[in-house]
Specification:
Layout lengths: L1 E4 L5 H10 L7 H13 L3 E8 L2 E12 L6 E10 L8 H15 L2 E8 L4 H9 L3 E2 L5 E6 L3
Parallel strand pairs: 4-5
Antiparallel strand pairs: 1-2, 2-3, 3-4, 5-7, 6-7
Helix pairs in contact: 1-2
Amino acid sequence: MNIRPATRADACAVNELLSQLGYPQADEATTAARIQTWADDPTLAAYVAESDGEVLGVVAVHVAPFFERDGSWARIVALVVSDRARRRGIASRLMSAAESFATAHGCVRIDLNSANHRQDAHAFYQQQGYADQTSTSTRFLRSLLG
């Protein structure tokens, strides 16, 4: 298993993954352009998990400065593992890549949103050390300070 930055060539596989998450994509070219945007911006990162040339998962994370205080935080905006490859540790490795990116960019916190119906995902996030911050959707938060 290799975790690496996503490239434009991953667009077809990323489209399939996003569709599995419930977000069908318009076309491969649009996704390729979006991946390139993420690759070109130092505050954004998208990683794929690849095994034997097949993309099995993707995570996207961005870094932003706090407005109300000093420092930065990160948000995982997408995480999906192929339904053919779940429960093999791929999501944990993708999360680690996102957290490493955030830490390297000086973030003191990382969060994500997860739809209320994704109870298996909620259990996974809690196992990863994220705390449930329920509001209108379920938000998980993990301190990156120790």
